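Now read the record:
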Amino acid sequence: MRRLFVLVLVALSLAGCANAEPQADGLRIENCGNTEVFPEPPKRVVSLNQHATEILLALGLGDRLVGTAYPDDLAPPASVAAAYARVPLLADQYPSYERILEAEPDLVVGGYSSAFDETEGRSRKTFEDNGIRTLLLSESCAANPAGMDTLLSDIAMFGEVLGLQENARQVAAGIQQRVRAVEERLAGAEPVDVFAYDSGEQAAFTLGGNGVGNDALRRAGGRNVFGDVPKVFADVSWEQVAARAPRAIVLVDYLAAPVQSKQAYLTGHPLAAGTPAVREQRFSTIPLVELTEGIRFPDAVERLARDLHGA
């Protein structure tokens, strides 16, 4: 166990997203600018975004997960679907601070930084002032582009915090194995220029270069045409979309912005319609949860590889 713990600390340090140090008063975690000390593994956890919830369930948190919120789709992976269905849904979007307190958590996990919105009364400090620890997935605060290494680092961190180190090792190994298999199949393939369309009409809300989704595209043999934008997601102009001439388009699908009308909108758009992707009707649909930091990362890589290269 000591050897595993040392390896975890090395992985966290290399990833640059989180750091864990054993202290006399417990496990000390440096996470997104906050220091959290865990004298013992949390017993009651609330997770405020679906992709974070799926990570915790994959690690085997089970009945210790006492609440979730803000689902992005209605189809969790089969490996966690039954457990996900048993977790109380606190709200369809973000619950109030008071609603979260009703679940009596000793740890609140956020998938996006918006989970801890100070203007909504849910800042990390507000929770901590009430004796509730908080953790945030590192994609939301990484100073450098996040990717699979960020995800693996967070899985190791949660494994340490929750006392589920062996489960974390197995989950991480499974992710790496699946992604490596795709990369081996695509060795030597010419990357395909891709535009990811999330939403927007006045401007296009798209995938930038700092998120896990950009890394999924890269590993699947794609080249994000807005990979030079230093954000996880960003607004870009339609003139930029046209100028960068994507050869394929990823339509991002989630409950708040379903995909049904997006392809039709792009097909009828005076600028987007002229891109090679739209002219050739080369579209791929990807759930938002697959393009964010979570256990569906290999699903995204496999799906994109099939759609872009037939591999």
Residues 1-17 have pLDDT under 50 and may be disordered. The longest strand covers residues 192-199. The domain at 192-309 is CATH 3.40.50.1980 (Rossmann fold). The CA atoms of residues 178 and 223 lie 20 Å apart.
